[in-house]
Every structure is written in structure tokens, then in C-alpha cells.
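Re: duplicated header lines in exported C-alpha cells

Our pipeline writes sequence and C-alpha cells for each protein into one text file. With two proteins the header for the second block appears twice in some exports. Here is an export where it did not happen, for reference. First protein block:
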Amino acid sequence: MHSACLTVGLLFLVSIASACYISNCPQGGKRSIMDMDIRQCMSCGPGNRGQCFGAKICCGEEIGCFFGTSETLRCQKESYLLSPCEPAGRLCGTNGGKCAAAGTCCTAESCTLDPACNSRSIFSSD
């Protein structure tokens, strides 16, 4: 009897650990993220001339990039929205980044220098 209670308790803890919470799961559960439309990420920065690349990254062709500053505060809201977003821009880098500013390639976690983001408009798809 004791081992049965222990097993039930352990299963309960595992189910809690893998559960969806309001801030991190899409509407309809974990698997519904594949069915959702991807929207463009929020605008941010001075005059909303940039776009969010992560919770603490705001970049734009005219403004450059801001990391963890007051210009990025709006980007934190992306974490609470149910639908995923994808920033505009040309693909760059080896880790699925997008051109964020002149010479800069960003993902949701970091930015790197990338010469592929120097030519033409960084937001063109070519």
C-alpha cells in the first residue's frame, strides 16, 4: 500500500512539472503551437522604429540594437502572448538568426556580427 501511494505521488509530481502554465503554453495546449499562425514580433525602441528579437533585445535598421535597456521593456510582453512571433528580416548566421541592424544578426537569445547583414536593406528577403 505504501509503494502504491508513493507511485501515485511521484506521478502527480511529474504531471505538475510537465504541465502548461498560462505564461508558457499556447492556447489549446503544448501541441497546438504547430497549428498557430506566426505573427510579426512587437515594435520597440525610440519611436517604435525597432522590433523585438527576444525579451531583452530590440533592434532596428535606423536605431541599431538595445540590450536590456528601457527600450527593450516592451519586448518582455512577448513572453506572455500566446501566439509565437518571428521578427522580419533576412536569414543570417548558423543558428537561424535574422538580420536585425546593419552588420548584426540576432536570435531571441543573442546577437552577433554578420557581414551578410551589411548589404542592401537588412529587411529584404533576398
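Second protein block, exported in the same file:
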Amino acid sequence: MNIPQHIAIILDGNGRWAAKKGMPRNYGHTQGAKTVEKICEDAYKMGVKYLTVYAFSTENWNRPKGEVDALMTLLRNYMKTCTKTAAKNNMKVRVIGDKTRLDDDLQKSIANLEESSKNNDGLSFQVAINYGSRNEMLRAVKKIIQDKDENKLTIDEIDEEVFAQYLDTKDIPEPDLLIRTSGELRLSNFLLWQLAYAEFYITDVLWPDFTKEELVKAIEQYNSRDRRYGGVKGE
């Protein structure tokens, strides 16, 4: 089976999963974080080299304050857990998104995690926090303009390859496969540039219930696609 080099996942359905169990939404987010850790291990053992997950979007700030505060607490705890997991599993971690809006202590935790894991050569794990693809591209354009004004770049030098180096995903290959759980059929402002040629896999499974078996199903469907001509192989 051909294993995608880079898989991106929109982690959807945590709140609905919790509601079905009569639990608060935050319980779903906590269980969803545990699923992330397990899928990281499973994906790497299967041969995936890069895994990018959508943890907190720029639009998520519009959720009720109590839920946002709980998510920030969860992210703080997860950064600490992830530091240990990264060391244990030789995992390189990068946080993508506009980190400037995050509290100073969370920014420091992220910086420590990235620094401590930067030389690891196992799974490259990207976590999107306060991430929105439109925001990412606007920040890239502003930096390009600044570099042009400082004579570090000319207009003629700007092409797709140069532009990609100004994105948060600099030096990371574009995803081969996007997985979205909970059955939603939209990108939700996630990796709009990077997903231009990715295969999409949508499942009704809610994220906390996503397992290795579900990951295998996604990769099997990826293998059924004709990446050169489009459609399904054998048609």
C-alpha cells in the first residue's frame, strides 16, 4: 500500500461526541487530544512522515468564552504532554498559525517545545493553533512587501516557490491527503494554498472515535485514486 508522505486532518466532532454522551463539550476536546496522540503513533508506524492537525482556528475565538478558556487550558496542558511525547517518540513538533495572539506563557511553552524537538528525525508533527489560511497568506504578503521595501526581494523573484517559503508551512511538503471527520464538507479556512492538489477523505466518524482502522480506510481510499489523471483507478 502506498502511504501518503503528508496527511492533514481537520479534527471535527469533539463537541458532538461529548453531547451524545451527555457530557460537556470540553470533555470531548480532552478525549480528542488523546486521540491525536494515538494517531500520531499509528501514522508514524505506518510510514507517514508528516502529520498536520487543525487544533484551534482564528474563528474559534468566537466560541463562548468558557469554551475558549477551557481550550486554552487544554492546549497549555497538551504542550507539556507533547514535550514528553516528542522526546519519547523522536517527534519533531512545529506550531503553525499566528502565535502573537496567544498568552505569553503559552507562546513560551510552544517555543520550548519547538526548540527541544527541532533535531528529532521521527514524525514531523504540525499543530495549527490560532490558524487561518487567509490570515496566513495575508501575513505572508505583508512580509514579502517588507522584504521588497528592504531590497531583500524583487518582484521578478516572486513565484509560487518563493511565496510558499513565506507561509507557516515553510520547508514542509504539501499534504497528499486531507482527512475531515464528522462528515462536514468544507475546508474551514485550513491550508487553502497547501491543499491545492491533495486528495480529500470525509468520514462521518467523530474525531474522538477515530482509530487506526479509520486511518487505514482513509489511506486505502487514497490508494484507489488516480493521482495523475483524477478519478478512481480502473475507470
